[in-house]
Amino acid sequence: MVYQDTKLKRSHNIFLHWCGFDQFIPEQIVTSYWISPKVLLLYRIICALYTGFIFWFFVIVFSFWPIDLWNIYFKFFTIYSYVGLHAYFVTTAIYEWRYIKSKSVNFLLHRKSFWNYTFMYLYSTVVCFNILTPVIYWTLLSYLLPLDNFLSILFNVSFHILAFLMMFFDVWFTRMRLPKRLVIFTTFTVFLYMIEAFIDHAIQGTWVYPFMDWKQGFVAFLYYLYVGNVEVAAFFIMKAIHILRDRLAYKLGKAEAAVNFPEHRQREEHAELNTDITRMA
What are the residue ranges spanned by the domains of the chain? Predict the structure, then answer.
């Protein structure tokens, strides 16, 4: 299949351009090397329905719980990342449906840049945090929710296993790129969550997660460092998966242009960066 891969207009903001927000190529989010747009749409609809059902199911369950789990539920980073995952599947399902209907991505190319940049931010957080969340949970927090009843099994499987798998297969099925400098924004998002956790502790007197308690001294510092390192590692693992997918597609004859190779992208980025520097000078 021959792809048009029309690019967005170059951002006038040098920082946004440097970060890669304007590298979003709309056709890549609605097409695949491996499956048809209709199959991709079906996959995203199923994922959107499942994530929406699970989120609201536990909202209802925890609202009737003997202890105040309802308020705690909305403090978990897991829930934030899951809401982002649901929003991603709903958004991309709509994009996919409009693409199939119109056979064009003009509805994305001609809208305000803000929305495309926002989508790039959403995409980067979804692919990063749905590795970060299960790794932190299974290494530091799983003892808090043992798999001894149906609800705990459903919660753990849905939020800490299936969320990752749904995200991973969506990445593999699409042709999206992940600009490496967006790691700045995913890291900053985690930092903002930690600030929120400190504010919540100052108000409520309790920590959302036990490992965040600074009474542990140096051990707490190591935990925070561990979370930060896992977040950055998760981002670049997903970056590597994007590259592996493109290379495999090219080897199998699914990708027809060398533009899919990261070396080519890097040369483009360096050329554009040099142009920016020249203009600023």
Answer: 14-280
Map tokens 């995913």 to a residue. Answer: 186
Minimum mean pLDDT range among 152-156, 226-230, 242-246: 152-156
How many angstroms separate the Cα of 122 from the Cα of each of 81, 136, 242? 10, 20, 16
Cα–Cα distance, 195 to 50 (Å, whole number) = 31
Give CA 6 to chain center in angstroms. Answer: 23
Nearest to 40 by CA among 53, 51, 27, 52: 27
The phi and psi torsions of 198 (rounded to 5 degrees) equal -65, -40
CA triple 164-166-171, angle to 5 deg: 95
Of residues 117 and 262, more confidence is placed in 117
- Alpha-carbon distances of 1 from 32, 165, 247, 265, rounded to whole Å: 10, 27, 16, 21
Q: Are 137 and 160 in contact (CB under 8 A)?
A: yes
DSSP 3-state of 177: coil
Q: How far is the C-alpha of 36 from the C-alpha of 57, rounded, in Å?
A: 32
Q: Are 220 and 211 in contact (CB under 8 A)?
A: yes
What are the residues whose beta carbons fall under 8 Å from the beta carbon of 176, sequence distance 6 or more?
28, 29, 123, 242
Single-letter residue type at 222: L
Residues sharing a CB contact under 8 Å with residue 61, sequence separation 6 or more, in sequence order: 151
- pLDDT tens-place string over residues 251-275: 888 776 434 444 444 455 445 545 4
Contacts of 173 (CB under 8 A, 6+ apart): 32, 34, 35, 40, 43
- The tokens 């593999």 sit on which residue? 172
Number of helices (H) and strands (E) in the chain: give both, helices first: 12, 0
Dihedral sign, Cα of residue 267, residue 13, residue 242, residue 105: negative
Give 141-183 as a 3 state SS string: HHHHCCCCCHHHHHHHHHHHHHHHHHHHHHHHHCCCCCCHHHH
Tokens at 277, concatenated: 């520097």
